């Protein structure tokens, strides 16, 4: 996962699509993985309690997680 657009970043983005934070974990970014996982699934949980109103927050968080995994560059 040496550069943006590498095969490793594509795999990380696909992993984040299925489970928020998994792509960051694959890249070795444990703190980012925990933050994305906890915030995204907390928002999804609140969305189920509020009849979907919080999906306005949960879906963009999940998309951000996927994009972050795809654009990561290890410097």
If you had to describe this structure to a student in words, what would you say it looks like?
The chain is mostly helical and 75 residues long. The protein has one domain. It is built from four helices and no strands. The longest helix is centred in the middle third of the chain and has 20 residues, at 30-49. The model has no long low-confidence stretch (mean pLDDT 89).
The figure for the number of domains is 1
How large a portion of the residues is in β-strands, by DSSP E? under 5%
Helix content: over 70%
Mean pLDDT: 89
Order of helices and strands: HHHH
Please render the helix and strand layout as text.
Elements: H1 7-18, H2 22-26, H3 30-49, H4 55-71
Helix pairs in contact: 1-4, 3-4
């Amino acid at each position: 996962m040496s550069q943006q657009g590498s095969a490793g970043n594509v795999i990380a983005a696909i992993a984040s699509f299925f489970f928020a934070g998994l792509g960051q974990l694959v890249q070795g970014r444990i703190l980012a993985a925990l933050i994305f996982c906890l915030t995204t699934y907390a928002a999804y949980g609140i969305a189920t309690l509020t009849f979907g109103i919080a999906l306005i927050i949960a879906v963009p968080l999940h998309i951000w997680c996927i994009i972050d995994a795809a654009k990561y560059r290890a410097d």
